[in-house]
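Hi X.,

You mentioned you wanted examples for the new student's onboarding notes, showing what a folding record looks like when two proteins sit in one file. Here is a clean example. The first protein comes first, with its sequence line followed by its structure tokens.
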Amino acid sequence: MSTTPYRWRWPALAVILAGEVMDMLDTVITNIAAPTIRADLGGSPATVQWLAAGYTLAMAVGLVTGGRLGDLYGRRRMFLVGVAGFTLASLLCGIAFSPGTLVGARLLQGLFGALMLPQGLGMIKQMFPPARLGAAFGLFGPVLGLSSVGGPTLAGVLVDADLFGTGWRMIFLINLPLGLAALLAGWRFLPAGREEGAARLDLGGALLVSAGAGLLVYPLVQGRELGWPWWTFAMMAAAVAVFAAFGVHQVRRRRAGGDPLVVPSLFGKRAFTGGLVLSLAFFAAVAGFGLVFSLYLQTGLGYSPVKAGLAQIPWSAGIIAGFGLAQAGRRLGRGLLHVGLVVMTAGTGVTLAVLQLAGTGVGPWRLAPGLVVLGIGMGMAMAPLFDIVLGGVELAETGSAGGTLTAVQQLGGALGAAVLGTVFFARAGDAAGPGAAGTMLETAMRATLWVEIALFALAFALVFLLPRHARPEQDAETGAGVPVAV
């Protein structure tokens, strides 16, 4: 039974969606603004990668504990703290005076975003009876879809408009009125209360996850510029050891009667472990493409920020269409993932062929068909992904499994920015503009697309490890199936 008067359910849902939109926009806007930011503040190509990877990495490690903090101290309280911190971090981004301060502020954004976002699912389940959950969750798709279309374009418009002489800084400063409105409305409309008998926080596990993720991503971003010294490989090896230690810690904590971050029994399930690797590969490909393609449009083809944003509308529109097709094809189960990955590969292949034939003279209309096909496949694969993976775990494990998958999604985004960005810059270096430099950038873009195809092939093979269908009762019980931001 809902504990909130009916009249506040929909305003409260609007506040939760506003938080999702703020995160969605701040995930994609730096891809468009990165060349302008670097031209203003300076920094190396790794700075561009950190603008994307830092945010998603902090989000990934924060999500591990963000939902648990809401259970312990109240979801509304943690949501409001997250919004306030996210808004303050946005201000720090907007007044950053060096690449280091901007990257540091982006890390803060990710951490507070990880505190804000997990509270929404619990509050929605608290406010809406099971019969109305479908309608509530059904609003996520259109809202996040419109954000994915408008985000890059909005970023380009704000950078080019140079409002009040702020230039690129306005892409962060615009969060100030949005955050203030979300704070006031959240205080008024969101339900209070916390989970009875909530699990205690596993600080040791959270520290191990954070250390492992940092040890993995840092050398991937910085290694190329530093000439790949021995310690970068040592850090990546240490990351594997730390993640292994995390698994041992979770088992010991459960045996001691404590509450682990991840239910240890999940690691013994083929569907779940395969789904984790699949999610890493899939979201690395998605996030890496978004970063590299935005860089190529501006540094290789000379597009302005607003033109680069507009050029990506076919991709975003394709994602929305793919989500719609996924609803019609749900009976295919995991086969829908295979279809989506094949369509994504086809779209990438079309884009490769266009770049090969047109070279540096390629225009937005020539790129559009491949981007639409890529987006359609992405939407078709993304929509059922979490539901299918969770179909291989017990219902009692879905809360832990869903939270872990969401964190791995963000970690995949960080890895995508690190790995695909490194592939791109290894070929392109600091080249910019038409002529010989444009040819180098085109070569770099094509090399990155081949890596994309390899990631799609890996994901295609891993789909066979998943159950054939999702559980029909999953959606109402866990909120699974809610579209995820990329």
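Then the second protein repeats the pattern, sequence line and then tokens:
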Amino acid sequence: MKLSKEFVLRNFADKYIAVTVNDSADEQNAFITLNKSGAFVWELLQNEISYDEILSEIIKKYDIDANTAKSDLDEFLTIVRKAGMLHE
């Protein structure tokens, strides 16, 4: 899976906002707000990467258990899928 190149991540203070950069931005009105861990996963998704690889990186970076990491990753992926930001 990999993020669409039609979206970019911008940092404003401690907030991260993913927005569309294509010509139909007004029609789509697609954007999401991310926290630091969401921005971390966003950066991982800049290149082709598997679900298991992302999960492993989250566990390693945040030193959390696999169930918590999986739950958080699934929630994040649901959000970016609904916004049309993810290529699978």
